[in-house]
Please model this.
Amino acid sequence: MRVLVVEDERVLADAIATGLRREAMAVDVAYDGAGALERTGYIDYDVIVLDRDLPKVHGDEVCRRLVAGRTASRILMLTASGEVDDKVEGLELGADDYLAKPFAFMELVARVRALGRRSAPALPPVLERSGIRLDPGKRLVTRDGNEIALTKKEFAVLEELMRAEGAVVSQEDLLDKAWDENIDPFTNVVRVTMMTLRKKLGEPAVIETVPGVGYKL
Model:
């Protein structure tokens, strides 16, 4: 899942990003509204965590522009106010969800995951295919009932393959969804991650390489 965190309090923004990355999400950060609009102009995010009170371009205006541009991203709006009128106002701007500060981090994670499921065709919270069971909320993967320990990136790659439901996923799409904007597009990290993931999943092999196209499960 690709997430953009837009928050002008840098310590908070970086803490949220670090926490979400630990949950196997690819996370970029913008510290003002202008930076958010710039990034959303060339990157498709599943979820945008958007603070309302932003410099340069206010969070409300960022939300309006994204909605007017028919963004497919789901927007979780953050604000220091938990008053009902403020929540209603934020949702009426086009936000998909609203969370008042201070918040419990695991609630933020749960809301981001719920919105991420809504950014694509509906899929069950727990994914199952070819004897593999993947639970994003618990960060748990099993095959034929046996638990498999995966790194964050291996987990993220496997999740994207399972969400594709048998369709081919390109290396570019895997880089986009499982890594952030700092990754070198010419890196062989996807191939290396796929090798270790296949080894951990064991036999019979379930991940197929489609030459010149990508991978499918």
About this structure: The two ends are 17 Å apart (CA to CA). Residues 105-118 form the longest helix (14 residues). The mean pLDDT is 89.
